[in-house]
Each structure stands twice: as structure tokens, then as C-alpha cells.
Amino acid sequence: MEPLAGTFESNRDSEPGCESWWNFHRRRFLRGGAMATGGLLSQGMLTKIAERLSMASESKHSEKMRAKSLIILWMQGGPSQLETFDPHPDSKIGGETTAIKTSVDGLRIADTLPQTAEIMHHATLIRSMVSKEGDHERATYNMKTGWRPDPTLIHPAIGSVICHQTEDNIEIPRHVSILSGQWPARGGYMGSVLDSFQTGDPKDPLPNLKSYTDKKVFENRMVDLKSVVEAEFRRGRLRDLDKNKTLHESSTGRATTMMASDQIKAFDITAESKSVIDSFGDHAFGRGCLAAIRLIEQGVRCVEVELSGWDTHAENYSLQSGRCKILDAALHSLIKQLDARGLLDQTIVMCGGEFGRTPTINIANGRDHWPTGFSTLLAGGPFRAGHVHGQTTHEVIERGNDPLKGIEDIVRIEDLHATLLHAFGVDFAKELQTPIGRPLSLSKGNVIESLFV
Amino acid sequence: MSENHVPPFLDRIPPVMPPVLNSGDSNSAASDAAGSDAAGSDSVSRAPKLESRWKKRLLLLSIGISILAAIAWATSPRAKLLHAPETIASSFDASIHAVARQVDKAIDANIADHKLEKANTADWHTLTRRISLALIGNGLSLEEMRVVEQLPEDKRAVWWTEYLLKDRRSSDYLAERWTRATVGTNNGPFLIFRRRKYVDWLADNFEKGTPYDVIVRELIEAKGSWTDAPQVNFLTATMDENDNKKPDAIRLAGRTSRAFLAQRIDCLQCHHDYLGKVNFTDALNENDDHGAESMGTPSTAVGSRTGEQADFHQLAAFFSGTKMDNPFVGLHNSAPDYRIKYLNEENESAVSPTVPYLRELMPETGDSRHKLSVWVTHPKNKAFARATVNRMWAILFGKPLVEPLDSIPLSGPFPPGLEILAEDFSKNGHDLKRLIRTIVCTDVFQRDSRMIKETGSEAVEQEHEDHWAIFPLTQLRPEQVAASIHQACRLIAIDESSSIISRLELFGGVNDFTKAYGDQGDDEFTQQSVTIPQRLLVMNGSFVSERINHNPIMNAATRIASLVRDDQEAVKTAYLSTLNREPSGAELNAFCERLKGTQGTARSEAMGSIFWAIINSTEFQWNH
User: Above 70 in pLDDT, residue A275?
Assistant: First the structure.
């Protein structure tokens, strides 16, 4: 299969206009390229050649591509749509929440988000998200990857897909999870190289980036590692062992580069003015949002910032209000800062959780899991600003009745993913060869065209 | 090989098989002391005030003694399990060797067909490390290396296998691998799933040598409470926290077919198989000419049909009668009640439980899960034995014979060796330990992972690994990396005989490290590449630094640096403790240069740096 790769390279250089030919042979090339370097395929990765072929076929989409980066504000636990972006005050399901006006005429959101109300003219609000998963772990997987859990294959999170489909030349990870909890974004079948780099509160130094020995000792250790132990191990093994098989030494090299890189400063929010830092709120999540902006400025493709604690089976209103207070300042400042720094047009912000919460209030004053008819907020990139998509009913949906009743303009999880990938100019329908030998598209959803400008 | 040479350092580490007093003795001694004090107090005073004072003193004394006894119990090692080399009789009988030779013959023929050269047999250091990583998840301790060294060189690998098969650590470790395959790594429903109990139940059965078909039948047929009958957790793991009346029949069908039969039929849940990936056949694949098999030649493909949506749901229907009306009683059986609206159908239809192939193997009587369990484990249902062999092969080699691990086509083609091992497993009472012994006995397992030519040229291609001409190089899983680091940095083996504190330190450390490193979940045999955060964690993380920095009580690096004054012996000891081999000449020279002239803390730090370089190497973090 090696000649295939060679054929491609020569054709690509001499006949850059052969789009249809490339597309026609794309799957064959993907499979061929992957098989040609069987070692890498067995490691659950798609080859670089396959990656470049994939990107070649999507160049026709590049005109539409406006988004460069994605910031996901991940609300782990299931934020209540009724206490955030889809209140139904004065109804049987409304609870204690009231609605307030926003910067968009006719749009009202919960009184728990007063600052967010001021930036809604930048946002696209989806009030009709529908999932088939009501368990936290499965629903989180579903929302982060766009696929329901499949025991035979781990799907990549959307940040990993975007990184896979793009190329950058930066010294720090392109996919970052700040305050990641139990289920951070993973590269899945695309390989653990696309797993998100996990960090904690930006007020603390990045973990494991500094050697605990002085510079001289560290340098000696690196010399011994490379020229003594690794050199001995390489003898009699696969040619270009690191490149063709382990990537161990090259990962060590990249880790060392990162340790010494100036770009690491992007994680350090203390370089920002006090007023900017304060505007995000005195909370790890707020600091995470500010760090996300700095990382995006540095060229990072996808940053996920997590705010957990939304699983309010008891005392829903007070607990959701507490979470909203943290979210409100951070989300408001995030959008404002992205706009002020000229980044909002090329950055998509997505804010939401794995599902919403029940319209009915249980005996513990809580709301339970509700995957049918919850809200997700988008902002920036090519999305329509000040737009609301879908709606839910204020009527009580009893258990056993059609849960989709009263939801208009339903957006399935996979549709949201297809739409996001489309916003990045990614041809999400194209199929890649997965390690289990099954060709699989990047998303099986449909683009919600009405969300775009 | 200088296996009989005992370095001076050996005299200074604790003896290998010390007759350690059982902590129970100190407890009883304490009790006796307390008892005699109590007797004394009764006879000393009759006056009420004095009696009260004596009672208080006695109480305080008892509490003090109890605390001291508890500390002694927690910190002292138990009686050592490391038996003298000669005390473990080998169970590698002639029939095991015969089967291993058949496997070798089949694989060698395939290698010859591809005109490939085979690697030589690996040295005993490499073999024992391999066996350790596969059966307990970490390399050998220095203490264990010294014991193995006392045996004749040709007996070391076999003895070490036998020793580990009798060591509880191997049962625990294999149970964790099987737990991942059967219930995954999800936390499961909080109130009705006890993962720890499930792992322990599996480990107990592995330790006892319960036939594997019996274990699987117990899992599929489990009834009762998930605490009283831990095997019930196989079923309750799939229950929904919000509606915990019934296990999820669909998830159980998927797990049963994948974990026990290596049949990935999950796609049939929604539609017929239109990719030709799921095929069923009623042919029994009775093929005696195993040596002729190869991946390119289907052994039998008679009567094969593609899977249909009904196949999946008929399998799921076996679990549909399993219910939990009363949590105190647990799961019980009722009549199967399964309905599904098939794709492109307008209405739901009732589904009767039945199996997708070889229906004649299913008994006519018994409840539905009993029928399923008998069919799954029937000796003529060869998928069961193949699935088990493939999983065990993956555990021992780091990669399965057939990839993906849980997808082996019913009608082949099968890779050389698979059918031979499956048949032997089936005919010998589904004995997992025999299967391990057989695989370890093969030349394939004992092959080197490299080929060093006198000319110095590199001759290894990926093809060599693909056809098992060399032992495959595979990345250690996170828990293997963590446990190997921990064990390498402690001179004494951490096993059942270790103190509670030592074992807790290992357990907690491995868990934390695995979480930070990135657990692959139940997909643990899929090879991934090394990531930057993983490298940073090992290079700069506290898990490693705490274990290699100056610590004269706990850390191997410090103890070797201070106890072994000869630089060459110190470097050799460090290599035995970490990589379980002796250093090459170049390595010895380079690291002796680092130790030259050092003393005290500086020597300890220099040794810590040697440990750092080794632990961060490809060799340490990959199985080879």
C-alpha cells in the first residue's frame, strides 16, 4: 500500500485542482494510508497521510469556514433550562424563577442570569435540545461526542475532531480541559494524542510543568535518558521505532519543549488587569473562562471549562441559583472580552450540559433529569446573533406521555454537532476508517441552517 | 550470566524468607498482658476508691495496649508468601508442552510462509518481567529477582509463572481485567452495584480454580441480592438508577455476546447487518488440521448468514424476565416479556428468547437465563473458548491474536494457534490456569522482542510483529505503569504478606496515578500513543519524585545508594530493581560515571537520577 501514499503526494503537488478525483478515492486512500502504516493504525490513530487527505477533500468548504476556535462551557450535572435560559414563570412548571428582559427584544431568560441578559444579542439560543440519554455518564458522552455510547468504539469529543481536522504549529496543547471532572474530552478512536490536556484552577501553576530538580540535574537526566537508556533499547528493533511505533521519545521531546515554551504564559491569568480578572468572578470557573480566552489568543483550538454542581434533585432553585451566579459573571465577561479583543467572530462559545431538568418539581423541591427539551447557548462564529431556536411548552408533561410533546424545532445532539463542525468548515459527513474496521462519518446529524447568519 | 553470584548488597537487605511472627501473636500477647493485669487488679484492692482507680488505670492500659497492637498489626508484614524455590511443584505437565508445540508449529509455518526470520528466545530476565506484568501488573521486586536467581536458569520462567498463579495478586489482577470486560469501568448505579464485591468474587473463583464455564454460567444466571451474591452485580451494573426494577436487557445482550463469545452484534440492535460484519453459522468448525489454518483461509464458512435485527433482540429477550420487585430479595426470574418495534415496522411485536446460531445446543428445559448460559458455555459453541483464549492471549502479550479483541468471526478465518488453544481449553475443563501455562510455554511467548544482528543492522519490520516472529512491543496500561514504578522503588515485594499500610500506599498511589495518566476503561487492549501530559506526569509528577527522592526508609534508590558502596554493583542493583535486567556495558559505564566519587545525600540523589532516567524510558513503559 505504500505506493498509494506516494501517488497521492505527487498528485497533490502537481495537480492541486483534482478535487473530484481526490474525493472519489478518499475512502480508499484513508484505508490504504492507514494500512500502509499498520503500526499506527493498531494504535488507534489515523495516519498523517489520511489526515491530510481528509483535509484536502474539504477545501471546498473553506469559503464558509469562519470559526477557528471553540470554547465549551460545560455545565456538568444537568442545568435546569427553567432556571436558566427557558423560564416559564407563573406556570405549573415554573417554580420560583421569574423571567427578565434581555438585550434582544422579546427574549426573556431567568432572573438568575442578569448579566448574561445583557449579552444575549451576541448569542444564539437553542431551547429545543433533545437527547436519548438520561444517565449522567452516558449523556455526557453523548453531548461531548455527538454519539450515543457504543461499547465497540470510543468516539472522539468534538474538540478532538476539530483538532484532527485542522493543523496548527504551537508549542502547547491544542485541546485543553480546564477544571475537568470525571469525564474530560477524549480523542477516542482518533487516538489519545487528541485527548484534552487537563488543568485545574488557573490561579495555580500548571501541574507537572516544572522539573523538581535544578536545571543542570534535569539536563543530565535527559541526556542519560536519551543517549544511554533509549539508545540501548533501540538496538535490534523496528526501524524508526519512535516514529513508526511508540512516539515515546518524541512525546518526551514535545513535553520538554512545552516546559520551556513562552506560550505557557497563556495559562497564567495574572498577566491580565485586576479589573478584568475581577469581572469574571472570584471563582475557579471564572478564572478558567479568562484562561480560555488567553489560550484561544495563543492559537489553541478547543478549550473546555467545566462548572459542576447542577445535579439538583433536591432544593433545585437555591442550588441552581448559586451555580447561575458563578456562570453569569463568567459568561458575560467571556463574551464581552472576546468581542473587545476581536475574537468573537472566529470563536464559537457553547454553553450547556448533558441534559436539562424535569418540568415537574419533586417532593424534595428538586428537579430530576430531563433530556427532552433543554437549552444550549451558542455565541460567536458564524451563528446568528440574538436568535432563538425552538421552544418548549409550559404544560406539565406527565411521565409516560410523549416527552417530545410541545417541543418545537427539535435539535438532536447529533444535529448540534453537525452544525458546529459545519461552522468550522469541516465536512462532517465524510467517513473515516475506524480502528474496528468500520467506516464512520464525523457526525451523523444534520446542519441546522437557520442558526447561521 | 552471573545468576549464582550473590552481591554483597544481598546480605544487607532483609532476608528473603524471614519467619515473620504473625501479628496475631502480638495481639494475643497483648491480651495476655491485659488479662494478667486484670487478674492482678482484682486481687489488689477491696476498698471502693482504690478499686475505681485501678479500673481506670486498667482501662487506660487496655486502650494503650490496643492502640499499640493495632499499630503493630498495620505496620508489620504478615508471614511471607514467597516460598522457597523448591516448594512449588511445577504443574506444567507433558500435555501442556505438547499443546504449546502444536501452537508453535502452526505459527512457525505461517512465519515461514511469509519468509520471515524468527527472533531468538528471550533471556530469563525479560521473560520473568513479561510474566509479572501480565499476571500481577508490575515488574519483579529486587527481592523476587534474588529468589528467582537461585533457580537453574532454564527453570526460572516456568517457576515464576507457577509461583504467581498461586499468589493472590494474580487472581486480583486477572479479576480486574475480567471485570472491565464484563461490567466495564463505569461507576454503575450507586445503590445496587458493588464493583469491589464483584471483583473479589471473580478473584476468589480464579484463585480456587473454578472452571471458567461455571463462572460464566453463574454470572448469566445470577439471582438474589448484589451484596449476598456478588455475581448479581453483572446484571445490576446495567440497571438504571432512576428505574431500578430491571436490568437492561439490551446492554446485557451486547455484553454477553462480546465478553463471552467475542461477537460484536451491537449494530443489530437498530438494523440488519448491511456491512457484512456480523455473520452467523451453524457449522461446528470441527477441523482437526489446525496447523493448516491461517488468517487468509476460512476454515469453515458453510451455511453462513448475515445478522438480522431480530438476532440481537432475541438474545436480549433472555434477560427480559429478570426483575427486582423487592431490593431486599434482589433479582428473580419471571416470564420473559420483551417487545420491540423493528426498523420499518409500524407496530411492536413480542420477541421470544432464542440464540442466533447452533440452536440445538440450547437445553429445552430451565428458565431462560439458564438456557442461555448453557448455550453460551457449551463445549460445541466454540466461540466461547475462542473468546477466552483471545482475551488471555491479550493479557499475556499485550495484544490479542484477533483484533478487535471481542470480535472473532464465527466461521473464521482464525489466526494460527487460536483453534488449538481453544480446543485444549474446552477439553480440559475450561481451566484458565492451564491456558496461561500453555501460552507461557509456547516459543512465541518466549521469543525476544528484538533481533540483534552481528552486522548491527536493524532487521525488524512491523510484519515481524504482525506474524508473531518477534514478541510484540506494547505500551503498558496506566495501572501497569503506576504499579511498576511503585514496585521498582521498593526493594521488597508488595503482596499479601506486606503490611496494610504498604498495600494501601500501593492501592491509593496506583489509583491516583491511573486517573491522572488517563484510564482507557474497558477498551484497555487498544493501543494508544503516549501523550504529552502522560510524559509530563512521569517526568515531573509527585508520584515519581516521592519515590526516587532521598528517603532512607522507603525508597530503593536511597537504600541502594547508601548500602551498596561499589558503583558497579549499585548500578546493577538499580537495573534489577527497575528493568529486571542487568545493564549493558555502555549503561554501566555511563551510570558509574554519575555515581563516581559521590557520598551521602549526593550519592542518593545521583541514584535517584538514574532511577528517573530508567523509569522515563520506553523500555520501562512498554512491554517487550
Answer: yes
Which chain B residue is nearest to residue A220, measuring alpha carbons? B609
The reported pTM is 0.74
Spans of chain B below 70 pLDDT: 1-48, 72-90, 241-244, 274-275, 283-303, 454-458, 520-523, 527-529
Residue A279 shares a structural domain with residue A368: yes
Q: Is pLDDT larger for residue B34 or for residue A263?
A: A263
In a domain, A208, yes or no: no
- What's the DSSP call for residue B155? G
Which one of A43, A221, A258 has the shortest CB-CB distance to B612?
A221
Q: How far is A201 from chain B (nearest CA, A)?
A: 16
Same domain, A303 and A164: yes
Distance to chain B for A240, nearest Cα, Å:
10
Are residues A174 and A280 located together in one domain of the fold?
yes
Name the average pLDDT for chain A: 85
C-alpha cell at B378: 457449551
Mean pLDDT, to the nearest integer, of A31-40? 38
Q: What sign results for the dihedral spanned by CA atoms A313, A109, A406, A76?
A: negative
Has residue A425 been placed in a domain?
A: yes
CA distance B124 to A1: 38
Examine the domain organization and report whether A229 and A324 are in the same domain. no
Q: Give yes or no for B348 touching A (CB within 8 A).
A: no
CB contact residues (below 8 A), chain B span 23-82, against chain A: none
Q: Does A414 touch chain B (CB under 8 A)?
A: no
Is B455 at the interface with chain A, CB within 8 A? no
With beta carbons under 8 A apart, name residues in chain B contacting A191: 528-529
Residue B368, Cβ density class (10 Å: 0-12 exposed, 13-18 middle, ≥19 buried): buried
Domains contained in chain A, number: 3
Structural domain of residue A238, as residue ranges? Answer: 215-256
**Interatomic CA distance for residues B339 and B349, integer angstroms:** 5
Nearest to B145 by CA among B605, B579, B590: B579
The answer to the question of residue A210 being in a domain is no
Instruction: Using a CB–CB cutoff of 8 Å, tell me whether A1 touches chain B.
Output: no
CB contact under 8 A, A192 and B532: no
